[in-house]
Amino acid sequence: MAWFGSIGEHLVDVGNPIQGGTLVKGGSVTELTSFDDLVGGYSLINANDIEEAAKLAKTCPNEAGIRIFETIPM
Q1: Residues 35-39: contacts with CB within 8 Å, 24+ apart?
Q2: Confidence (pTM)
């Protein structure tokens, strides 16, 4: 939680952990019981670009690493 405080105004939503899942593809629905690239949760931050987001992520103590994705305005 200290890291979230350290990024201050950039934090939009602390997010939630993720468990389980379902794959919907081509009209079929499959329960995900295991997968290679586990995503443990999400958080939303506001950054000017991917480079700024990466700079913020480098300060996070999460040893599993952080994946950064840019959202597309709709």
Answers
A1: 39/67
A2: 0.65
